[in-house]
């Protein structure tokens, strides 16, 4: 076993220039080398990509990586190419490619040059692709963002539920590795069931604690007042990358505008902008021509920007799960990240109003999720402990290290109450 450990570490240094594996990475990669189906539950920023990138590069054949978004695939392909010494080492196959480009990609796989192929689940369902993969040498299949399989997840995609069916058609008896940052047991069991992972599958669960993130909730008062606070906070962190989440397109535009007026390189990002503008904004953020993105939920999934220094929520999210995912985009490099949520009880009422027209099941589920968000916002106890408990993890708040507002200022343990918000508004 010792020899293989050195072997993996050597490959890690050679390929990515990292000295050591993070968390469970090494055991996960070993599991794939053992030919086992492997289920990885690891928080955002934990280093899931490396768990399939490294063995993909090392093993014979080409690894199929299923990923839900084109932007996400492009991001990863670019990053692997920057480590590797050839462009052919990684490709993506999706509807954005021309016929000629597709042919080239397939040639590179057949000739053994390509070690990692990123595909959308839709691409897998195409007859000609299934035929191609049936004859190709596939090392293993990675299903990234596997929570997309579950309706209980925060990002359900129906096509994801057909992956198993497609893999059966491809017909290889190849190991699969499913990866997600979702910690809820319901989603996890959905994934295992739907993918029909082997009986002797290996599951790796990491702690969901992000000890470099500072959690804070602030009362949300009148718009002008909160905008002023945001501007002040952003200016305290000059030239740092950050994301401000909002619920409406209008708020995204307004906050971006207010920041720009105050000399901050900010831009809005929401579903109302055309795809070209959105992709340009995303690139500008990655290139640091834009520091602060004011976004609706449409932004951030899988974007690998390691040095995001803050994530603010101007509007409270719909669930703790969403909050955890969105704040998880801060501090992926292990350095600090400030997570500030602005909370007003009237925003909860607004969210409840949205639910009113929904079917009963959805309404009840939504209301339950919102209760938790409210409890988080109003708690006077350790926020980190609250978040981790939500995911079923025992956590002793003495380990928080004053990395949340309630642990840092225990004397002022009043939380954010409705009265405070009313006082601010009056
Ligand atoms: P996830 O998909 O779990 O959210 P990523 O795969 O995007 O996380 O990795 C997050 C960051 O951690 C990336 O910047 C990546 O380069 C870095 N990283 C991953 N593994 C290691 C390692 N063993 N040593 C140092 N940095 C690592
Ligand atoms: Mg990832
Ligand atoms: Zn705390």
UniProtKB/TrEMBL annotation:
<keyword id="KW-0479">Metal-binding</keyword>
<dbReference type="GO" id="GO:0006310">
    <property type="term" value="P:DNA recombination"/>
</dbReference>
<dbReference type="GO" id="GO:0006260">
    <property type="term" value="P:DNA replication"/>
</dbReference>
<feature type="domain" description="Helicase C-terminal">
    <location>
        <begin position="226"/>
        <end position="377"/>
    </location>
</feature>
<keyword id="KW-0378">Hydrolase</keyword>
<dbReference type="GO" id="GO:0005524">
    <property type="term" value="F:ATP binding"/>
</dbReference>
<keyword id="KW-0238">DNA-binding</keyword>
<keyword id="KW-0547">Nucleotide-binding</keyword>
<dbReference type="GO" id="GO:0009378">
    <property type="term" value="F:four-way junction helicase activity"/>
</dbReference>
<keyword id="KW-0347">Helicase</keyword>
<dbReference type="GO" id="GO:0030894">
    <property type="term" value="C:replisome"/>
</dbReference>
<keyword id="KW-0413">Isomerase</keyword>
<feature type="domain" description="Helicase ATP-binding">
    <location>
        <begin position="29"/>
        <end position="201"/>
    </location>
</feature>
<dbReference type="GO" id="GO:0043590">
    <property type="term" value="C:bacterial nucleoid"/>
</dbReference>
<dbReference type="GO" id="GO:0016787">
    <property type="term" value="F:hydrolase activity"/>
</dbReference>
<dbReference type="GO" id="GO:0046872">
    <property type="term" value="F:metal ion binding"/>
</dbReference>
<protein>
    <recommendedName>
        <fullName>ATP-dependent DNA helicase RecQ</fullName>
        <ecNumber>5.6.2.4</ecNumber>
    </recommendedName>
</protein>
<dbReference type="GO" id="GO:0005737">
    <property type="term" value="C:cytoplasm"/>
</dbReference>
<dbReference type="GO" id="GO:0043138">
    <property type="term" value="F:3'-5' DNA helicase activity"/>
</dbReference>
<dbReference type="GO" id="GO:0003677">
    <property type="term" value="F:DNA binding"/>
</dbReference>
<comment type="similarity">
    <text>Belongs to the helicase family. RecQ subfamily.</text>
</comment>
<dbReference type="GO" id="GO:0006281">
    <property type="term" value="P:DNA repair"/>
</dbReference>
<keyword id="KW-0067">ATP-binding</keyword>
